[in-house]
């Protein structure tokens, strides 16, 4: 008996060959034309993301670890999960002051400390690849060093955004950087803290993903 | 806590819609919800030139994918496999369910957490898994709500749109252990967060749908606002993605226009909170992510739809739900009246093709052909034209659609034959209209057809003389 | 869709106008004649075929459509006082006649089919002088006119030319009235719900009359207005325009 795969492909081929599907050329001009003045990009990103309750903090290359620590202390976070084997992680380790929050290393498989991650971690911090002006979105490219749950499980997600890593559209960043040549295990766009409108179309924040998203703009 | 007991029962759209119309709460909920969705969507597409360019691009992307569908599915399988994703094929929902069950049994799964997936509704997957002792818990808040109440979703994007806050507050208090009564939306949401967080942590398997599968890279793209989709596809050790075979796109660059049209049409957002692009399971050295990913490609009648030159355009659909938001019929009867996983305009053309015109022959007629759906479909599906085609298929035996001709009645066929004979002969038409003009108004309101009309309207009145008569009297030339 | 001004047009009355609103049909003819256009009304005409077409009986629809097509021997525009019938001829006849010997001719006729207000505004560029008393009206947009024939602003543009007519727009102007041809009798409860909402919307405007370009809609709405004992009545735009410019009420 032919397997489902052969059956399905044979049916599709027969259907298509009997009547080819008429196509029209794809014109990406409408996406290509979505451009913003570099000076405007950050303002737009901020506006769109703040509209969905993202919080923005300014910092410099020098002081961002201190800025993050102060912010999290103010927010009452007791623990911060981070990726030690990244440049950002190294900076945190080197410059984190006494007086909490406690730094927790994400340096082993989640399976070894899953319950702790879900119940005892208040915040997680990640780098980003940049941000997109069209939609107000951060680009995350998780890796072995910077695992993806950092931006999902903790109640607060702190994202480091370099002020010069700004793009116009999703389409632009993926085509200019040739993402199709090699996609990572998981790539993400994040545009705010988690939300829902499932209860009578009333917006509520902090459903399953982080309740708060803090973008630290690093100049 | 499952869809286990939910069966639509005998399909009866007339009866179901009549009941829905008599429910003032349902009518109010839907009216308010649809009005909001329509006006917010209009804001997203306020730039008319951009809207037209985007929907042309969206249509072209979908058409290109459909034109190469078999090749793209093979390419998708090849790239997914190379990336470590196991690809399965299922001709029927039974086969798809069996595939999912086999995976779950092999890993000894007891609890599966689910992201929103209309294909899984099509499969009645939850009920199937329940029968085999596996709990399938919906994690999308709207789906979680309807699951708690043993209902099916009533809308493909907002599953609990038929409920208001009070109804949900009562449901949570009744069904969630230890829950206090509150109508505060933030508190209700927080309650769901706490309950489901434990489940994410402990689940053996995560099940999701797929918004777009990229053949070029073997990537599964998912959009969501809540984070449950990411939870479900990242935390459990096994991830199973179920997908209709039409959801493939050729290239990665095809994804941004499709997602932009989808999110702006569905929930009036420029983008969802999360866009999740999955290309492989956890690699060596990585610290999280599933160890196994399975992609189940489902046919369930799509290959037959694909074979028809006209009807295949049903498969362009990106499942945005805008058509049902704009449908005046859907707004009044709500999603449950359709008794199908896909309600509204797309449901009315898709479900009869999947399940047959015998069972679903009434669906294409539950439509006034107002074309509101055609106007806002982001991929330009000629929905009204396909609706009309299915009406023809319902009353003429043929091979193009399952159970074609099953709605044919001798009586109706004769009526139309008679009508055609009369209206194609000027002499016969003149005679018929003379008779109607003279005695038509004496017809009792209780006559079949007239009875339906006069239930809420006065009888239409035949004019004493026809336009033909007046034109002749006024000497309007005939040629 | 602006074309050069023709000397002669065919007038296709439609079966609903013929039987229920012949005055609206005559009004349409007069409005055209007043602009110096010769109007030809082939007496052999009956129906565009839409009722059978929408019921899935395409062969029967084709038979009737063919009989109409035969009447349009000259290449004059065909003007139709109904959005849905204009839509049937203008957008669906090409599909209906696909593969038939008359396909070319059907396409040609479809291409020169106009809904009445579309023709008055875009081809004849009519100027109207209001001789009537002040009145408030509202406009119901026929689904087929707006979405198949692209006729959105033309009717309102005509109404706005009338100095003593206050045009108040419906809250849900574009929403279907629930007629849908056989839908009204096939799904009478849903149709009833839709027309009731439309009536409530009309009442909400405080208008004395609702004007429409489609007799199916008018039959539906008027029937509901009458059954609900509402003082408001619906009028076909052709009749309304003629009356206003002739100085009636």
State the low-pLDDT regions of chain C, or none: none
Tally of helical segments of chain C? 13
What composes the largest sheet of chain B? 6 strands, parallel
Radius of gyration of chain C, in angstroms, nearest whole number: 18 Å
Percent in helix of chain B: 40-55%
- Measure the end-to-end span of chain C: 34 Å
List the quaternary state of the chains: heterotrimer
Describe the structure.
The complex is a heterotrimer of chains A (219), B (479) and C (249). Chain A has helices at residues 4-18, 29-32, 38-51, 64-75, 87-95, 114-120, 170-176, and strands at residues 55-59, 79-82, 102-105, 123-127, 130-132, 137-140, 156-162, 166-167, 186-190, 195-199, 202-205, 212-218. Chain A is α/β, with parallel strands linked by helices and 219 residues long. Chain A has one domain: NagB/RpiA/CoA transferase-like (Rossmann fold, 3-Layer(aba) Sandwich), CATH 3.40.50. By secondary structure, chain B is α/β, with parallel strands linked by helices. Chain B contains 23 helices and ten strands. In chain B, a hairpin with a 4-residue loop joins strand 5 and strand 6. Chain B is globular and about 90 Å long. Chain C has two domains: 8-123; 135-246, Rossmann fold, CATH 3.40.50. The longest helix of chain C is centred in the C-terminal third of the chain and has 18 residues, at 188-205. The relative contact order of chain C is 0.15. At the B-C interface, helix 1, helix 15, helix 18, helix 19 and helix 20 of B face helix 1, helix 2, strand 2, helix 3 and helix 4 of C.
């Amino acid at each position: 008996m032919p397997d489902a795969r052969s059956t399905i492909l044979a049916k599709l081929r027969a259907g298509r060959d009997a009547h080819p599907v008429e196509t029209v050329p794809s014109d990406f001009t409408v996406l290509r034309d979505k451009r913003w003045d570099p000076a405007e990009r950050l303002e737009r990103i901020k506006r769109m993301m703040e509209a969905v309750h993202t919080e923005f903090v300014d910092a410099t290359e020098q002081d961002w670890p201190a800025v993050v620590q102060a912010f999290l202390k103010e927010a009452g976070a007791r623990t911060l999960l981070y990726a030690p084997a990244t440049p950002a992680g190294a900076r945190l380790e080197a410059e984190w002051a006494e007086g909490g929050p406690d730094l927790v290393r994400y340096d082993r498989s989640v399976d070894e400390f899953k319950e702790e991650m879900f119940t005892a971690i208040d915040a997680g911090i990640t780098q980003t690849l940049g941000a997109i002006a069209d939609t107000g979105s951060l680009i995350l490219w998780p890796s072995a060093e910077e695992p993806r749950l950092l931006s999902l499980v903790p109640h607060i997600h702190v994202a480091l955004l370099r002020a010069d890593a700004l793009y116009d559209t999703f389409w632009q960043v993926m085509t200019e950087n040739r993402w199709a040549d090699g996609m990572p295990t998981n790539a993400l766009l994040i545009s705010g803290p988690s939300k829902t409108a499932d209860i009578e179309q009333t917006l509520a924040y902090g459903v399953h993903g982080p309740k708060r998203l803090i973008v630290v703009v690093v100049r | 806590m499952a869809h286990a007991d939910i069966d639509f029962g005998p399909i009866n759209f007339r009866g179901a819609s009549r009941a829905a119309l008599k429910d003032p709460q349902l009518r109010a909920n839907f009216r308010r919800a649809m009005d909001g969705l329509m006006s917010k969507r209009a804001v997203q597409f306020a730039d008319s030139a951009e809207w037209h360019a985007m929907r042309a691009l969206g249509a072209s992307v979908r058409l290109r994918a459909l034109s190469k569908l078999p090749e793209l599915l093979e390419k998708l399988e090849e790239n997914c496999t190379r990336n470590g994703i196991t690809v399965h094929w299922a001709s029927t929902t039974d086969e798809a369910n069996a595939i999912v069950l086999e995976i779950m049994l092999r890993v000894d799964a007891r609890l599966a957490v689910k992201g929103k997936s209309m294909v899984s509704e099509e499969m009645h997957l939850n009920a199937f898994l329940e029968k085999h002792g596996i709990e399938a818990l919906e994690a999308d808040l709207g789906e979680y709500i309807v699951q708690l109440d043993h209902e099916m979703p009533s809308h493909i994007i907002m599953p609990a749109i038929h409920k208001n806050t009070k109804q949900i507050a009562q449901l949570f208090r009744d069904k969630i252990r230890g829950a206090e009564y509150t109508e505060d939306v933030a508190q209700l949401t927080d309650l769901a967060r706490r309950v489901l967080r434990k489940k994410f942590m402990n689940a053996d398997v995560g099940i999701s749908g797929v918004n777009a599968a990229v053949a070029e890279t073997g990537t599964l793209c998912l959009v969501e606002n809540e984070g449950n989709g990411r939870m479900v596809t990242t935390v459990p050790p096994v991830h199973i993605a179920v997908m209709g075979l039409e959801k493939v796109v050729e290239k990665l660059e095809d994804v941004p226009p499709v997602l932009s049209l989808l999110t702006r049409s569905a929930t009036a957002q420029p983008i969802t909170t999360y866009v999740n692009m999955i290309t492989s399971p956890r690699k060596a050295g990585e610290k999280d992510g599933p160890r196994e990913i399975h992609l189940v490609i489902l046919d369930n009648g799509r290959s037959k739809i694909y074979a028809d030159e006209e009807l295949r355009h049903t498969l362009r659909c990106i499942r945005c739900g805008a058509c049902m938001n704009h449908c005046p019929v859907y707004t009044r009867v709500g999603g449950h009246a359709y008794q199908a996983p896909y309600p509204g305009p797309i449901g009315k053309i898709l479900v009869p093709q999947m399940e047959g015109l015998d069972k679903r022959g009434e669906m294409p007629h539950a439509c006034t052909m107002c074309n509101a759906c055609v106007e806002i479909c982001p991929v330009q599906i000629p929905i009204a034209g396909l609706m009309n085609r299915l009406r023809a298929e319902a009353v003429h035996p043929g091979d193009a659609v399952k159970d074609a001709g099953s709605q044919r009645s001798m009586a109706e066929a004769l009526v139309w034959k008679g009508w055609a004979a009369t209206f194609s002969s000027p002499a016969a038409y003149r005679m018929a209209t003379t008779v109607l003009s003279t005695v038509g108004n004496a017809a009792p309101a209780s006559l079949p057809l007239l009875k339906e009309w006069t239930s809420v309207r006065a009888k239409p009145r035949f004019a004493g003389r026809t336009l033909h008569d007046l034109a002749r009297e006024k000497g309007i030339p005939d040629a | 869709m602006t074309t050069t001004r023709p000397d002669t047009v065919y007038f296709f009355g439609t079966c609903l106008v013929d039987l229920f609103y012949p005055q609206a049909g005559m009004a349409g003819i007069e409005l055209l004649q007043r602009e110096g256009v010769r109007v030809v009304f082939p007496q052999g005409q009956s129906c565009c075929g839409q009722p059978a077409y929408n019921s899935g009986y395409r062969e029967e629809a084709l038979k009737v459509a063919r009989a109409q097509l035969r009447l349009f021997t000259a290449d004059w525009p065909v003007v139709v006082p109904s959005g849905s019938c204009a839509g049937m001829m203008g957008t669906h006849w090409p599909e209906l006649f696909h593969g038939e010997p008359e396909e070319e001719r059907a396409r040609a006729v479809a291409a020169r089919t106009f809904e009445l207000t579309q023709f008055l505004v875009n081809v004849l560029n009519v100027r109207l002088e209001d001789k009537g008393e002040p009145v408030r009206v509202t406009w119901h947009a026929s689904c087929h006119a707006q979405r198949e024939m692209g006729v959105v602003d033309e009717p309102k543009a005509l109404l706005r030319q009338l100095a003593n007519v206050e045009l108040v727009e419906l809250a849900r102007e574009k929403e279907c009235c629930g007629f849908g041809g056989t839908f009204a009798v096939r799904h009478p409860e849903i149709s009833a719900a839709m027309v009731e909402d439309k009536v409530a919307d009309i009442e909400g405007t405080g208008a004395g009359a609702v004007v429409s370009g489609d007799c199916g809609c008018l039959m539906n709405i008027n029937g509901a207005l009458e059954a609900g004992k509402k003082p408001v009545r619906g009028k076909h735009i052709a009749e309304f325009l003629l009356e206003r410019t002739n100085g009636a009420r």
